[in-house]
Specification:
This protein has a single domain, classed as Alpha-ketoglutarate-dependent dioxygenase AlkB-like (Jelly Rolls, Sandwich), CATH 2.60.120. It has three helices and 13 strands; from the N terminus they run H-E-E-H-E-E-E-H-E-E-E-E-E-E-E-E. The strands form three sheets. A seven-stranded antiparallel beta sheet has the order 1-2-11-8-13-6-3, with helices on one face. It has a four-stranded antiparallel beta sheet with strand order 7-12-9-10, with no helix packed on it. It has a two-stranded antiparallel sheet with strand order 4-5. With about 220 residues, the chain is of the alpha+beta class. The protein is globular, with a radius of gyration of 18 Å. The structure holds succinic acid and fe (ii) ion. Fe (ii) ion binds next to loops. Fe (ii) ion binds near residues 138, 140 and 194.
Length: about 220
């Protein structure tokens, strides 16, 4: 409705349609959903000054090609003893940097859009992929709460995301993820196998020669 001043149209909120792709039941890709990518990247560099990116070792003794850090109340970590969430960064001996409000809001609105209201993640794993890095097919199953989804935000260089089924043998489909794309998987897809194909070389204005990824989890 037009206001008396005739300014109604100027102030009415425009919500642009988000280009959405359904990957499976409970799994959605929202293209360019993270509009403030530049400020997310800036916040990641700040977090990494406190808890630096590191190449974790798997329980089997392999050094991961993806470099990781975390923010929030606990962080995902791995060593010869296994995978786990730790409230203290094993590298610094101090708490992980707090999760920025902007991260939290983005994760919550994406989850809600995918049909998972009330998602309040307390952990955010931050991945850095340099050219040649990859993440093999896996399930996210170290969290206590499978009733909540995983929310993943892609920043910087594009990547090929592999999204499979509930068994490793199911051939995964491949989706190109670009800067600002958000993937949510939960409900019947919560334990879907997923991974990231070897990152191709390139240069991105926001991140330089890498891809950054945030994954939000309700883990504790
Ligand atoms: C992950 O599976 O934890 C990260 C996925 C991604 O980098 O897109
Ligand atoms: Fe994962």
């Amino acid at each position: 409705m037009q206001s008396e001043t005739g300014m109604g149209d100027l102030f009415s909120e425009v919500t642009p349609e988000v280009e959405t792709e359904k990957l499976a039941d409970g799994a959605f890709l929202f293209r360019r959903f993270a509009e403030s990518a530049a400020s997310l990247v800036e916040l990641i560099w700040q977090i990494a000054q406190v808890s630096p990116f590191r190449h974790l070792v798997t329980p089997g003794g392999y050094r991961m090609s993806v470099a990781m850090t975390n923010c929030g109340l606990a962080g995902w970590t791995s060593d010869r003893q296994g995978y786990r969430y730790a409230k203290v960064d094993p590298e610094t001996g101090a708490a992980w940097p707090p999760m920025p409000l902007e991260f939290q809001r983005l994760a919550e609105t994406a989850a809600e859009r995918a049909g998972f209201p009330g998602f309040r993640p307390e952990c955010c794993l931050i991945n850095r992929y340099e050219p040649g890095a990859k993440l093999s097919l896996h399930q996210d199953r170290d969290e206590k709460h499978y009733e909540f989804p995983i929310v993943s935000v892609s920043l910087g260089l594009p990547a090929k995301f592999l999204f499979g089924g509930l068994v490793r043998s199911e051939r995964p489909r491949r989706f190109r993820l670009e800067n600002g794309d958000v993937v949510v998987w939960g409900g019947p897809s919560r334990l879907a196998f997923h991974g990231v194909d070897t990152l191709a070389d390139g240069e991105h204005p926001l991140t330089g020669r890498c891809r950054l990824n945030l994954t939000f989890r309700k883990a504790l």
